[in-house]
Input
Amino acid sequence: MRPNALGRTIAGVIAVVGLAAGSVATAGTSFAAGASTAHTAAVAQPAAVAATQNFGLTTAEAKNVQNFLAEYWGYTGGIDGQLGTNSWKAFQRCLATYWGYTGDIDGDPGPNTIKALQRLLKDDYGYTGAIDGIAGAGTRAAFKRFAA
Output
């Protein structure tokens, strides 16, 4: 019994040493390939819009927003509780019509989108903060009231 345990221990140590050596040996080439690929990708590709931005809403609250957008603003995506690009494009159409949004309908909930959202929230949902384009605690709380 004892020799078998010793054999397994030695085999385990050899396997670990082999894996470590293999990792070190390939690290240089994978790092070099990754570095040149990353540089090329950074130059060739534009910045991507965030996948989803719920600004503190739960999935159920975000579904309420998507239902509103589907009913009134041409949202045709899934009612999945994830406010992604298509949800924000529909919301930007609403904000452009009534709340002074003048940017592109691009689905990016950046500062101009947030400013228009803050105007909506100030008018009807108890937002009392500045129209500053920052989705801070006050904006998030009022957005939750909107989504309720």
User: Anything to note?
Assistant: Residues 1-49 have pLDDT under 50 and may be disordered.
